[in-house]
Amino acid sequence: MKNVRQTAILSIIEQHDIETQEELAARLREMGIVVTQATVSRDIKELRLLKVLSATGSYKYATADKAEHGLSERFVRMFKDSVLSISYANNIIVIKTLAGSANVAAEAIDSMRLPEILGTMAGDNTVLVVARNEEEAAKTVDGFREMLK
């Protein structure tokens, strides 16, 4: 029963913008699945559903991978809007940003989960990125510069 209910929940949020637990419970009841708000709440937690901004500007439930995709696009936009310059030496990449924007750029880079990047460190207007080696740093810089276009 639980698997059927949770599969139905995933189907519902894929097809509809569901804003509340009550709305989700109502949709489940329409499908003939009897639930309480507490059960829906537990299912949301177990399925690791998140509330994300929808295209209409309201919030809706989404799976983590769908939410992450939306975040990635937003981080890329923020990266593009904040980066002033990118350079590297050996395996160290230095990204200069607008004042106060380094954390945003670093979070954008971290959200990409690039395997060639070992880590980032942000100051106020500078991000330090450590790549696995000089070759990976060069490729990463090229990728970052391509994002800025």
User: What name does CATH use for the topology of the largest domain?
Assistant: Gyrase A, domain 2
Look at the helices and sheets and give the structural class.
alpha+beta
Counted by DSSP, the helix tally is 6
CATH classification class of the largest domain: Alpha Beta
Number of DSSP strands? Answer: 6
Oligomer: single chain
Computed CA radius of gyration, to the nearest angstrom: 20 Å
Largest sheet, in brief, is: 4 strands, antiparallel
- How confident overall, as mean pLDDT? 89
- The gross shape turns out to be elongated
Report the CATH architecture of the largest domain: 2-Layer Sandwich
Taken as a percent bin, the fraction of beta residues is: 15-25%
What count of domains describes the coordinates? 2
Helix proportion: 40-55%
Q: How do the strands line up in the largest sheet? A: 3-4-6-5
**What is the straight-line distance between the termini?**
50 Å
Order of helices and strands: HHHEEHEEHEEH
Q: Which spans of ≥5 residues are poorly predicted at pLDDT below 50? A: none
Structure description:
By secondary structure, this protein is an alpha+beta fold. The chain folds into two domains: 2-62, Winged helix-like DNA-binding domain superfamily/Winged helix DNA-binding domain (Arc Repressor Mutant, subunit A); 71-148, Gyrase A, domain 2, CATH 3.30.1360. Helix content is 54%, strand content 22%. The protein is built from six helices and six strands, in the order αααββαββαββα. The protein has helices at 2-15, 21-30, 37-47, 64-82, 102-112, 134-148, and strands at 50-53, 59-62, 83-89, 92-97, 117-122, 126-131. A four-stranded antiparallel beta sheet has the order 3-4-6-5. Strands 1-2 form a two-stranded antiparallel sheet. Helix 4 (64-82) packs across helix 5. The mean pLDDT is 89.
